[in-house]
Amino acid sequence: MPVIRTIVCPTDHSTPARLACEQALYLAEQFGAHLQVVHVAPPGADLSPGSAKGAQASVSEEIERWLIQQAEKTAVAFSYGEVLGASPADAICRVATAHEADLLVMGMRDHRERSVLCQRSITTHVVQHAPCPVWVARPRKTRAVERVLVPIDFYEASLAAFDRGQALAQHWGAELMLLHVVEPAFQAGFVYAGTEGDTARERVVRGAVERLRPYAESARTAGVGRVTVHVRVGYPGVDINAFAEEHEVDLMVLPTHGRSCDWRLPLGSVADRILQRQACPLYMLHTRDSVRSAVPQDPRAARMETA
Prior knowledge:
Strand content: 15-25%
Shape: globular
Helix content: 25-40%
Order of helices and strands: EHEHEHEHEEHEHEHEHE
Structural class: alpha/beta
Radius of gyration: 21 Å
Number of strands: 10
Largest sheet: 10 strands, mixed
Distance between the termini: 40 Å
């Protein structure tokens, strides 16, 4: 089970940032963790109450009052502070490092929401550079986590996500949903020799189901009460989010390798698309923070057999 003792949540009191604070409070309550909330103010802001630039100070006071009200309902221990920085993303990562955070919780705006802190570029940068896993908040229909989704592509990075998703599902008594998306044969640049299209698709789907079975058995052995296996033919960047939305998933666990020169997530366009259009909260896990899964798997032989 992942140990979560300290949670850091940056905020600017925008709608997505407040949602992140609500989910951070829930997580702190669930794991008995200390919550460190940080008001990330723009460079040059004077946060003192009597300053000429008292607007930022008022925002800071409003955040703290709201936190006290929320924390009293849950008995969560929290600290509150401010941080200034030319780069909000770098400031957030520095705070997470300084507090030895086990989890960083933040929001991400969509095109209708106004928030400097929760811009997609800032959230993406934090996901890449944070010293710990990042929970990217999105609205949920229920407060509890009842369904945890782990997309599996059979490579080592997704094994780390499987380990964490399995542990989180066990902690919450949630259903663990394992999903593999098979891209259409012609999209991948090859055909199935000697077979008709529908027959080839059936073979690939069956093969994916068989590859997922050891993961399901491993999770059940570890104590996860309900594990389901799902295979779709489609495009991962689109169909993973579609699956999460259709099944009302409460949390999706995805791996990340960390730094990237072009600011894309390390899984490339797939993970970038999932983050842009996320249908549920995301738990973005650095593979360096997880032990490789006990499920036997050779990443070099992970692709489906096509012959």
